[in-house]
Model the fold of this input.
Amino acid sequence: MLAFSRTQKLATAPVDVNALVNGMHELLSQTLGPNITVSAELAPRLPAATADANQLELAILNLAINARDAMPDGGTLTITTALAPDDAVMIEVADTGTGVPPDVAARAFDPFFTTKEAGKGTGLGLSQVYGIVRQSGGEVALRSEVGKGTRITMRLRRATDNAVAQSQSDPDLLRARRAEKLLIVDDDPDVREIVGGVLQELGYVVRSAPLPDEGLAIMREFNPDLLILDFAMPGTNGAETAMLARKQRPDLRILFLSGFADTGALEAAVGDAPLLRKPFPAH
Done:
């Protein structure tokens, strides 16, 4: 919602879009599965775009997951980059899926609008993409044809600075060294999928659960090194789940995720446990 309403803070800088797309290939292949071919058609000598590199990665990952859901029997995901005649840097994500009719396409970027069955999606993925692109000063458009697939085009401003944004962290430090085991408990399937996919790409062994009871059951046989907990969940909340988990494993490390707006109430509930606020960058 912060992305859609353009109130989150983006760290915009010149981004090498081709390098970013190439760097996501393994993550996308793992996330989409063996039935979907990931293809990239990248324009040579593409100038840098003005964007937040981490948020742009998140936008592309969201689009890829939507595309996968539109290709239940498999297909091809193609990411194309190009420089438009008006100097906009274009990124197009296209699938060979089921496509959507015009009335659905017209509402695709609306928050909470989804054609997925209950429990399979929040309807926030495309609205988040819309917010990220618009807040970066760009535009996003969707074209779709039933039975032939969907194309989503992001148009970003060409960067005026030749310097390209680099990660502030040493890439070697971002990768897990001992295949640590992480357990994610979050009732949002998109969060579980995106966060789990990124962590697996970094070398972690990841399990996830939609509800606290299921997560606590997995704990008994999985024995995670870190428990990643959503705070606001139906029934038992994250703080209560943490107490139950600590009864099983008093030494268990816990990280809370939350988009909960009431900062004081949230911090009082989680105590001194680390808290990562949604939305957050992939790295």
